Amino acid sequence: MSSIFNSYNRPNSKFLCGRSGLWQKPCGAGPNPDGSCGGTAVCQPTKSGDRWRCRRSRQDGGGCDLGPLPDGTCCLTQPACKPSKSLRVKRFRLSVIAALVVVALVCAFGITGGFFFASDPPLRDAGTLSPKHAAVVGEAGCKACHEAHGQGPLQVLKTVFEDNTPSKMTGKCLDCHVFEKEETSVHKAGQCSACHSEHKGSDLKLIKFNDQQCHTCHKVKFSDFGSSHPAFGDTFPHRQRTKINFDHNAHIGTHFKDARYSKAAPEEGCISCHSVGAAAKAVPVKSFAENCGSCHEKQISAQSLNLLTVPEFEGNPFDKDATETSCVDKGSAEVVPGEEYESVSTDALNPIAAVMLDVDPDNIADYQDAVARVLRDMTDSGAEPIAKLLDKEGAPAAKLLAGLNADLVKAGACAWVSNEEFEPVDEGTFGGWQVQELSLSYRAKGHSDPVLKAWYDYAADAENDELSAHLLKPDGPGACLSCHSVNNTGLVEIAWKAGATSSNKLHRFDHRPHLNVLGPGSQCGTCHIVKKNAKYSAAFSQDDPKQFESNFLPIKKETCSTCHNEKKVKQDCSTCHEYHENPAFRAKMDFDSVEQK
Amino acid sequence: MKNFFIRLCVPSLLSLIVFLAVYFWQSYATLSLGSPREITGWSLVCVIVFLMLFNLRKKLQAFNLGIVKIWFALHVAFGILAVAFFLLHTGSIWPQGLYEQLLALAFWIVSLSGIVGVYITVTFPRRLTDTGFEIIYEKIPEEIYNLKNEAEKAVTDCAKDSGEQTLVDHYNQTLVWFFRRPRFYWSILFGGQANKAWVNRHFEPVERYLSNVEITYLESLKQLAERKCLVDEHYARQDIMKKWLLAHVPLSLFVVVMSVWHVTLIYAYAL
Known about the structure:
The complex is a heterodimer of chains A (597) and B (271).
Chain A: E1 15-16, H1 18-21, E2 46-48, E3 51-53, E4 84-85, H2 87-111, H3 131-137, H4 153-160, H5 165-176, E5 177-179, H6 211-217, H7 225-228, H8 248-254, H9 270-273, H10 288-291, H11 293-302, E6 305-309, H12 320-324, H13 351-357, H14 364-381, H15 384-392, H16 397-400, H17 406-417, E7 432-435, E8 439-443, H18 450-462, H19 465-471, E9 486-488, E10 492-494, H20 511-518, H21 557-561, H22 573-576, E11 583-585, H23 592-596
Antiparallel strand pairs in A: 1-4, 2-3, 5-11, 6-8, 7-8, 9-10
Helix pairs in contact in A: 14-17
Chain B: H1 2-31, H2 36-59, H3 68-90, H4 98-130, H5 140-162, H6 166-180, H7 185-189, H8 194-203, H9 212-243, H10 245-269
């Protein structure tokens, strides 16, 4: 719209004169508010009395000669122009269009999804998953992790105002990942998304942890490992003794120098006994057969486990009639009138039987009836009475008596109730259960004998002082505990597996890259230096694994910082430290889809 | 000096303080395993809302909301702050995910248009002042119309006075194209002198074919052409000073509306 006297077109107006758009002179009237041309007539005559007066402006030539027509309209007309929209209107319209385009795009490709694409809505695509998660998620797509996905736009909007979405996300993570004892961990991780960021493409790590984050909580702060990391502990990397009582000093310095055992000496140094090929956090020792068997195999079968020794009786405790049905060839010892009963055994009751029967092994009156009852039952049921006694004690009888021949037991029991010594069929050369003259015993068939292991585990678990005193000793049956340690950490356990336990689950170390740098086996001593005067074996005379002296000198920080410093190898916290103590996967994972493929 | 300080230093300092505050806040959140993205995201939203207020301020001229100079300086400073927050928020120039990439593309285009706009807004008025000529943008069509009329009148008068058709023919065949509407738009915007070169090229060579009377009219035509050059420069520069907002403002709204869906998705899926 333009002023009558000044043709200045106000930019605030919605329409501009169309003539100016054609580079012609805009008319004074300008467009009407509705966007139509307001300048078809040059002026708008006004009525003065009974006459119409011309109102043409001075710039346009002033009043015209013809003057207004009788009906009051201007005599000078021109074709109507087509007013154009002002820039402000155009800008507003473009803005509205831009907003509508977004809304349309979101509706078509974000909310409804699947309208043009069979797969998930493309405008909800947050980016490529990491390869591991992409493989697990598979065809389940977004729903696998995001509950709101696929439940309609309203549910998505509803989820926006829920404040537990991160917890739900973490819950989804924990469907597959498990962190045992995380609640007692020093770190006590909260939401997974705090550190693990997904949808960052296939080539980015999921973890965004840096040293500064560690230092936020850790009181001991330092700039870098090489210059200011605290010194390692006095026993690093060991926090407890080894599981196997293997004294490096004694073997290297004494035994292998002995002419009798010199052939067994490791020719290739450390890697003769340690399996470099399986190296990881630890370098595991090779098997018993490879490392120890040549010298220690015979020790295992030397000492047997005595399950039952027929003890001395005072008077014949057996009733002839009661046993003759089971023992066809034998009968109870027949006592000639006036002749005193003389027990064939003069031995005391063995400790295991005393424990099973809960009797005093040195008191004949205490054990006589109980033992006689068991022996009588054995003539009838073989090993079953012993199994019942073990079951009563809560012991795993099936494991403890595995391989025990019932007929052999019956035969032995029949001899014993007849006050006779049993005549063994063989010498028991290959080990296993044996019925000897006056005893039922077990001899290990070799290393890792399952029956002996079961007996040791039972002894450790039973917390019975008599049983422990009899079995849990280095010279016990099979001589197992001459090497395997018994550890009492509130729970008594026998360390059957060789190899170092992780000193600290938050410590991370991989031998492999170090072996590659140092050369396989050749430079173990760079870090592991034998402590020649260590009282290593003394620690195994007691059951506290924390009380120990290592065979090796502690590893110093300087050993690591030779390479791990700002000039050579990376030295950030996560190089050697874990955040989660026990990261693992749930055992059961759904691989059906994978199998179908 | 005081004006300079207020216009440039204060907004810059203010945005720097805001940036440092948010930076350390999100750094602390990162270190304490919080949600730094949430902090930077909402900071970015706040800055964008403040940038939009600049447009609102223009519409509320009736109220005393401060002078435009300061608003403009704040708009520029916070625009740069928005770019900084965006980089802090995404961690890269080009994020992952189709929608986020579209959003980033729109954001970068808006930022680029803003930078171009600032350059235009700051430099073009000075260039126009240097011409020594003033004209309101809305009056330019009328001015061009008048110049064309004056040129045609001069040519007609020349034909009458000299009785020659040479200048008339030259005008009808060549010069009328120049006077009909603004010319050399892009050359002027990029600082070229193509319009003046054109005028020289089409006036000086023709003198040898004209009589003395015609040369007089040619001179007056040349003066009109030189004035037309100034009008053309005003038209080109003032036009772009207004029309760059046709890209900047709608695209800004595009980004804002896209951000709403982005925030919705983030809260529905991740936070």
